[in-house]
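Notes continue from the previous slide.

Worked example: a multi-chain complex. Inputs as given:
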Amino acid sequence: MKVLGLIVEYNPFHNGHLYHLEESKKISGADFVVCVMSGNFIQRGEPAIVNKWARTKMALSAGADLVIELPLSCAMASAEYFASGAVRILNDIGIVDYICFGSEHGDVKTLDYIAQILVEEPESYKSFLKEELDNGLSYPAARESALKKYTAHSINIPQIISSSNNILGIEYLKALRRIKSSIIPLTIKRINNDYNTENITGSISSASSIRKYISTSNSTSFDDVLAMTMPKTSVDILFEEFSAGRGPVFKEDFYPVVTSLIRKMTPEQIRNFAYVSEGLENRIKSAADTAGTYEELVESICTRRYTKTRVQRILMGILMGVTSKDLDMLSRFDSPQYARILGFNSKGKQLLSQIKKKSSIPLVLKLSDFIKSCDPVLKRKLELEILATDLYVMCYKNPAFRKAGQEFTQNIIIM
Amino acid sequence: MKVLGLIVEYNPFHNGHLYHLEESKKISGADFVVCVMSGNFIQRGEPAIVNKWARTKMALSAGADLVIELPLSCAMASAEYFASGAVRILNDIGIVDYICFGSEHGDVKTLDYIAQILVEEPESYKSFLKEELDNGLSYPAARESALKKYTAHSINIPQIISSSNNILGIEYLKALRRIKSSIIPLTIKRINNDYNTENITGSISSASSIRKYISTSNSTSFDDVLAMTMPKTSVDILFEEFSAGRGPVFKEDFYPVVTSLIRKMTPEQIRNFAYVSEGLENRIKSAADTAGTYEELVESICTRRYTKTRVQRILMGILMGVTSKDLDMLSRFDSPQYARILGFNSKGKQLLSQIKKKSSIPLVLKLSDFIKSCDPVLKRKLELEILATDLYVMCYKNPAFRKAGQEFTQNIIIM
């Protein structure tokens, strides 16, 4: 029994994801697949286009056996926290043999070598780094330069660390090294066209191009373009959600809620929220005063230092009321602390009984039971998860599905 | 020079308003008309269908000469506060000779007699009242019974005080008496069909039937039904707003903002807001958790004691962050303290120069100047006005008009 772990968002599940899933099984020789998936809000600081239960169905119908939720506090965080949270879950459940991630580079040894340097920080690397920092370079620039020097230019560092999936991959590898995990990392070279993620370009298109297509098309039933770039089961699940009036959910739907919150606050109040560092509160305030759309709001806060995804995560933090204090409290944990099951198939059921034996963290099958018994900090974390969903569902087109408390009422997906 | 004062909402201005305006001029013999009008939020605790500047245009084009804003803290308040705020402004500007209001009863003497009893509280009335309260009657029921006894059944008290415009009229009369105003009150019997305010019934229809019609029809240009029940100038202004994408604004537009705010709060936090008395916080909380629409939210909070309009005002208070503390502070004033000009015509300009000489309260022509010079409590009141508009404009369909600060940038309407 070989178990493969995948770290995913599936927003929504498309042919590229299917390719990755099938190739990963092939190269690992694994016969079971566990996915750790972000929930109703994703790493970019946006709501997912359809909820996590629908995306769980997509994953299971495409070959995943078990889907575990990456808690919001890890899912909607920087690449480093996202990666370490997901890796910790896959490690802590005690049954995963391989992790396979997509990367632009495609060679796990090189990426892992970089991860090793960054985790172990050998003396000469550290002195290169210090030198560059003393020269006035920013931390990322100093790190890049130190890596180049340390590897004696044997690796094309700038090219590798300029690609988002390589960066994320290195973070997975760092996380595995830090916890001395026995999980074997693998990577698959990404085959999608990264030069054009804006538009659907063929059978393999980016998730963002698909979301963009959905936001501009008004398809509510069968759609040629989506059928070309997503597995049929995914398209069916997507339209099942749309026709029920549960989505598509877009960040734009949060314009009134987020902007009105900020318009009501003073810059000093904005300052209290997570990741709002000095000066940014004024940018956020004046952006909310002038912005007519969510996109405008984000764009007018962004700077070179504050990237779009970082700004989006900050705004979602404001939406959910996550203060710097909360963040301090939540980050006292170095791991997600629990594995919440979103769905499984019959093979996943076998995995669950293995996990029950081997996991070092509790398995959460029923949130209402778990929340009663857990400690206060974990409780705050779960309350955040519950609130996030209570706010997410308000964006549904169909009022009948906007009820709060769906984290308690929604059943685990069993396929 | 005779000046007539009208207290209005014009949401939107229709034939019934025109009839009232013209009849009032006729019976008073006045040659000038000053309107005190609620702003972007109205007495029922709802946003106005189009903004106050558009409604000012409607008023001026229908025969009003000067429009003064009733500040939010009075406009979105109980009949008593609404009436006393509006009457105080008309009194304090020092030039108004008559106030003429619509009433179901139509006889100002009878209404004023009731007002006199309620203001002066003669001994025998007071003892009737005490008796009924001691018998366990609610205050409104005890008052009704005491009035019946005091007037020795010479007036049909129950019939009079069961009609909303009589009630409001009595409040105007009470306010005039309390401040010993020299303004002469007049009333006109309302001619609209009160038995059916749900649907447009003819050339005189209620404002709520017109709003309902607009919410269900999708007219964005000329419309037969509206043309039948509103003056042409009003219809034109309405469609000018709609086609620019500034409205129609409905309370339903506030569903995500208000509901998400409440979903984030504990009942204890809800308790801090204005007019939320013991126990209501739990109703509000659970209503927000289950409601899929604003209408549902309101309906599930209402009780016999908490009427729909009261609940709506409470929800708007939560939206704007008005706490009980704020309310205590704001109600330290017994009058609006200033007269903010929304618009005028050439005759209104003449009035303004008279007001400048005779008014006991400052005339606000430029908010940015006034807010700098006023005292802290008044400043809080104005900030509330500014915030209300900053939140109101976010509901516009056209993102270009959603900017904050329109209280500062919008010019006075001069026609």
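Summary box: The longest helix of chain A spans residues 376-392. The CA atoms of residues 180 and 297 of chain A lie 42 Å apart.
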